[in-house]
């Protein structure tokens, strides 16, 4: 087991986070160490819990139960129904997890899913999502979201905006910054510069201008310039032919132009075990690639596979 444990945040208490955390502990207790930052009262009845006062106690507690850095969230959990009282505590758990990693008391942070509207309503949460808040805590102007599974890594350049807004948001500066952050972080993980495939914006990568000129006027010139600096880049590639197995064998990560262009292939390949990774933070952050799942919260049917994969990837990346 690693000397330093992974900090796991509570996420939205009304979602499936409190149900998948004990399942992840049961699956991983002999493999790695982590601790939950949250209210132990929110965990399912019968969960073996070891309340700890410091992260250093987590490795020794793993064999006995789920280590919990206990925090009072002010109210019980009602599955499927967000409570505004919880919101500030959910945000606080994220901030505390980041602080523990930055202080060298945790190896990495893995975050359970949050419900953005619940945080906005209950705590005035001013960020579009987890990724942007983590960037704020890390003091970074820009961070990058990567989704990863054993078969594929993808990075969307623009995220969580309407498709009609993508061409305006997709600037040369944004694409260049995305590629540079991806290259730097993966080089540290892989021990060598990654092979980066870059998708086109338009169908067939613009088909030589017949379906759009973004590839000709913006994407291709940028890639040529970065190749001159030593980047290993493929593209711009047609998105409809770059995700089958022989194509994926040619690169380590795919940089895509918008949310669904990146997420559809990875969720098709491995829906249950995809992991959300934030690049550019200066520390390791992973998250299960699913939401709070209010519709099944409280039924004990939530699949912990993605959280298990996220914790394993956090351990590997931290090492």
Automatic annotation (TrEMBL):
The active site is located at the dimer interface. Its main location: cytoplasm. Its EC number is 1.1.1.262. It catalyses: 4-(phosphooxy)-L-threonine + NAD(+) = 3-amino-2-oxopropyl phosphate + CO2 + NADH. It comes from the Bacteria. Keywords: Cobalt, Cytoplasm, Magnesium, Metal-binding, NAD, NADP, Oxidoreductase, Pyridoxine biosynthesis, Zinc. Belongs to the PdxA family. Homodimer. Substrate binds at residues 130-131, 267, 276, 285. A divalent metal cation binds at residues 160, 204, 259. Binds 1 divalent metal cation per subunit. Can use ions such as Zn(2+), Mg(2+) or Co(2+). Gene3D superfamilies: Isopropylmalate Dehydrogenase. The gene is pdxA. Catalyzes the NAD(P)-dependent oxidation of 4-(phosphooxy)-L-threonine (HTP) into 2-amino-3-oxo-4-(phosphooxy)butyric acid which spontaneously decarboxylates to form 3-amino-2-oxopropyl phosphate (AHAP). Its cofactor is Zn(2+); Mg(2+); Co(2+). NCBIfam families: pdxA, PRK05312.1. InterPro entries: PdxA, PdxA_fam. It comes from Sinisalibacter aestuarii. This is 4-hydroxythreonine-4-phosphate dehydrogenase. It is found in: Cytoplasm.
């Amino acid at each position: 087991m690693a000397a330093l444990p992974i900090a796991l945040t509570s996420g939205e208490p009304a979602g499936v986070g409190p149900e998948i955390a004990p399942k992840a502990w049961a699956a991983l207790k002999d493999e790695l160490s982590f601790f939950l930052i949250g209210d132990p009262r929110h965990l399912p009845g019968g969960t073996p819990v070891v309340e700890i006062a410091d992260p250093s106690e987590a490795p020794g507690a793993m064999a006995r139960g789920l280590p919990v850095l206990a925090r009072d969230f002010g109210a019980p959990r009602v599955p499927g129904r967000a409570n505004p009282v919880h919101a500030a505590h959910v945000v606080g758990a994220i901030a505390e997890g980041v602080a523990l990693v930055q202080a060298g008391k945790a190896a990495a942070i893995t975050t359970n899913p949050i419900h953005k509207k619940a945080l906005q309503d209950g705590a005035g949460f001013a960020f579009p999502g987890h990724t942007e808040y983590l960037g704020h805590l890390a003091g970074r102007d820009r961070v990058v979201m990567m989704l990863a599974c054993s078969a594929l890594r993808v990075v969307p350049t623009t995220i969580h905006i309407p498709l009609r807004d993508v061409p305006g948001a997709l600037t040369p500066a944004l694409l260049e910054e995305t590629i540079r952050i991806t290259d730097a972080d993966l080089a540290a993980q892989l021990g060598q510069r990654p092979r980066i495939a870059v998708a086109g914006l338009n169908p067939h990568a613009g088909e030589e201008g017949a379906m759009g000129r973004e590839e000709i006027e913006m994407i291709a010139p940028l890639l040529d310039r970065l190749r001159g600096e030593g980047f290993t880049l493929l593209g711009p590639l047609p998105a409809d032919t770059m995700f089958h197995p022989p194509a994926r064998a040619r690169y380590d990560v795919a940089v895509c132009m918008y949310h669904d262009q990146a997420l559809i292939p990875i969720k098709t390949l491995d829906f249950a075990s995809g992991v959300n990774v934030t690049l550019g933070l200066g520390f390791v952050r992973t998250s299960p690639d699913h939401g709070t799942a209010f519709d099944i919260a409280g039924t004990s049917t939530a699949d912990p596979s993605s959280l298990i994969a996220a914790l394993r990837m956090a351990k590997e990346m931290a090492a």
